[in-house]
């Protein structure tokens, strides 16, 4: 197959040994690349019972056939592991130059196992693998680590690093490269458990040839032109921060730990306001024509004046209205702290919001009152973020995430932990978005809007509020499978409305790149195959039917406009299982075949 190397490298960091393994064309055709390829590799290397933080646990990085082809936004790297936060599949995407550099190093993916005795940096310099000491890098931010390593190792290296949170094994620590984070599910925690402060990659080799270079180049130029149209204007002009005002106006905005779905006094946090008062510039990921990354100035008395922060809607939501904080300077500072410490900002804000509600309700968390954050108190929000990363004081409890923290505290506090499978909810209130609600409940990595664009069905009124449940289930499945395709081709979801026929046009691009004949139907079947393999992975790692559910607060809401209740959700999940071809308990009909391996290609674990 063209556009891929057809091999990956396994590195045991305990011994420093590295081994190349072949990747047959059937795997690339059936799992596409990115999240799909990473899921296949994770399934091979992480058998049932593997502790997420054990030396045997794999940490996987995977690229796609589109990387380096000139297709706009195709610069994402998939990172996967068994999540130490959820216990299930942990997958995330990070953009920028690392994916291209890794592909130039001659591999389609990297699987890392083992654990160092001392803190180290894994160095992949084309075909040469080495491990160098990194104890003196501890305490540095990812950006500082990257700068230091580039100075030591030489030109051309790209660096993925963890921050203090990963060093201290905070359950939702992230991995950062070029200022972009593989943020959710605790992948930085897995990297920290291996005592890897950083992974540095230099690749100077030739990219694999594509099947039809001329036709692919023309298609890439056409897609770039479309990427600058009205469909992406919001991202170019204001970024995702523009969502805040719209969601608040429509009462979709989770606020004060989901006690409300809108909040007064947020005018200074609206994307338009931040653009006028704090925006400094914008940036784009590698190979991207959209440039959605907007930067905002920090204005604080703690020595941060003059610095900037990259801000997305999810960070704005989780560190702002979810915690009742309306001061833009405190929210921006909190977001910058999450980036510097390499923390998932959604889980950080949601876990702190849980602690805020515990304090307000008189729950004994076992720590002095001066350490307890309070709704609306931006200063306590920032202090708590720093405590979490260092596991200091109450940070020791909150570093476990809201689900584990509630289990440890008890006293009925689990009612205020807003998560699915241990992953905290994103900034969309499911009480008025029923297709999204179903998508969140069944999502394999936990409460996630990025692995399913089901919210679009609700926001665009594709289905009437009283639509049949089976129609809602089919829509959620289509959204999951389409998201799996985009995440595996490593195309940005901000491009999705630039296509007239997303599956069909993406299939043509895949064919032009690789030479493999995909069409719209077979590409969506690949998306289904990827999602089913994720589910099978979860089943083997302890998933039970009760894990596909939503938090009590959103199901027992006193909001008059809520569309959710337990009876409806049970019926919707049952309809989803049936439409997915699953058993009534959510398991696969044929776990021996998985309905996953393309053309009978066997699953062979090393």
Mean pLDDT: 93
Q: How many extended strands?
A: 17
Rg is 22 Å
Counting H and I runs of at least 4 residues, what is the number of helices?
A: 23
First-residue to last-residue Cα separation: 23 Å
Q: By helix and strand content, what is the structural category?
A: alpha+beta
Estimated share of beta-strand residues: 5-15%
What's the CATH class of the largest domain, please?
Alpha Beta
Q: What is the CATH fold-level name of the largest domain?
A: Aldehyde Ferredoxin Oxidoreductase,  A, domain 1
What characteristic shape results from the CA principal axes?
globular
Task: Please indicate the count of domains.
Answer: 3
- Looking at the overall shape, the CATH architecture of the largest domain is 4-Layer Sandwich
Stretches where pLDDT is under 50 for at least 5 consecutive residues are: 594-606
Largest sheet: 6 strands, mixed
Spatial arrangement of strands, main beta sheet: 2-1-6-3-4-5
Helix content: 25-40%
How would you name the CATH homologous superfamily of the largest domain? Aldehyde ferredoxin oxidoreductase, N-terminal domain
């Amino acid at each position: 197959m063209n556009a891929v190397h057809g091999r990956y490298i396994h590195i045991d960091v305990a011994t420093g040994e590295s081994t190349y393994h072949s990747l047959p064309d059937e795997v690339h055709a059936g799992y596409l690349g990115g999240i799909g390829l990473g899921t296949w590799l994770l399934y091979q290397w992480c058998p049932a019972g593997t502790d997420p933080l054990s030396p045997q646990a794999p940490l996987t990085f995977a690229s796609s056939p589109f990387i380096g082809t000139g297709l706009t936004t195709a610069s994402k790297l998939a990172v996967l592991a068994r999540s130490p936060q959820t216990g299930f599949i942990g997958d995330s995407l990070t953009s920028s130059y690392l994916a291209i550099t890794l592909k130039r190093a001659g591999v389609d993916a990297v699987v890392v196992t083992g654990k160092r005795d001392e803190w180290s940096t894994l160095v992949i310099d084309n075909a040469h693998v080495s491990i160098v000491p990194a104890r003196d890098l501890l305490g540095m931010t990812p950006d500082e680590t990257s700068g230091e390593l580039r100075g030591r190792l030489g030109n051309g290296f790209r660096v993925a690093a963890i921050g203090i949170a990963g060093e201290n094994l905070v359950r939702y620590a992230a991995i950062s490269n070029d200022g972009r984070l593989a943020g959710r599910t605790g992948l930085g925690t897995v990297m920290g458990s291996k005592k890897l402060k950083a992974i540095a990659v230099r690749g100077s080799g030739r990219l694999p040839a594509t099947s039809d270079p001329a036709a692919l180049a023309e298609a890439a130029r056409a897609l770039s032109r479309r990427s600058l149209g009205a469909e992406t204007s919001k991202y170019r002009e204001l970024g995702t921060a523009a969502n805040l005002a719209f969601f608040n106006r429509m009462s979709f905005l989770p606020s004060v730990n989901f006690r409300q779905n809108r909040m007064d006094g947020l005018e200074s946090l609206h994307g338009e306001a931040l653009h006028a008062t704090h925006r400094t510039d914008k940036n784009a990921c590698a190979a991207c024509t959209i440039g959605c990354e907007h930067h905002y100035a920090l204005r604080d008395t703690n020595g941060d004046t003059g610095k900037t922060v990259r801000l997305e809607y999810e960070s704005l939501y989780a560190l702002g209205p979810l915690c009742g904080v309306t001061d833009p300077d405190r929210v921006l500072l909190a977001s910058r702290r999450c980036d510097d410490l390499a923390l998932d900002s959604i889980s950080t804000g949601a876990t702190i919001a849980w602690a805020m509600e515990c304090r307000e309700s008189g729950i004994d968390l076992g720590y002095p009152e001066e350490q307890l954050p309070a709704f609306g108190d931006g200063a306590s929000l920032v202090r708590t973020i720093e405590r979490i990363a260092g596991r200091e004081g109450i940070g020791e409890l909150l570093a476990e995430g809201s689900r584990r923290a509630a289990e440890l505290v008890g006293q009925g506090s689990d009612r205020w932990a807003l998560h699915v499978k241990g992953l905290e909810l994103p900034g969309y209130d499911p009480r008025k978005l029923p297709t999204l609600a179903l998508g969140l409940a069944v999502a394999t990595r936990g409460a996630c809007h990025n692995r399913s664009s089901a919210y679009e069905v609700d926001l665009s009124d594709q289905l009437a509020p009283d639509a049949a449940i089976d129609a809602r289930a089919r829509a959620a499945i289509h959204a999951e499978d389409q998201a799996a395709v985009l995440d595996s081709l490593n195309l940005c979801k901000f491009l999705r409305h630039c296509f007239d026929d997303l599956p069909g046009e993406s299939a043509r691009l895949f064919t032009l790149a690789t030479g493999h004949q995909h069409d719209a139907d077979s590409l969506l079947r690949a998306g289904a195959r990827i999602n089913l393999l994720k589910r099978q992975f979860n089943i083997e790692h302890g998933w039970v039917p009760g894990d596909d559910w939503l938090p009590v607060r959103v199901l027992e809401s006193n909001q008059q406009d809520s569309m959710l209740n337990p009876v409806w959700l049970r019926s919707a999940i049952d309809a989803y299982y049936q439409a997915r071809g699953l058993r009534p308990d959510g398991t696969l009909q044929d776990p021996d075949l998985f309905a996953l391996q393309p053309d009978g290609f066997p699953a062979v674990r090393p």
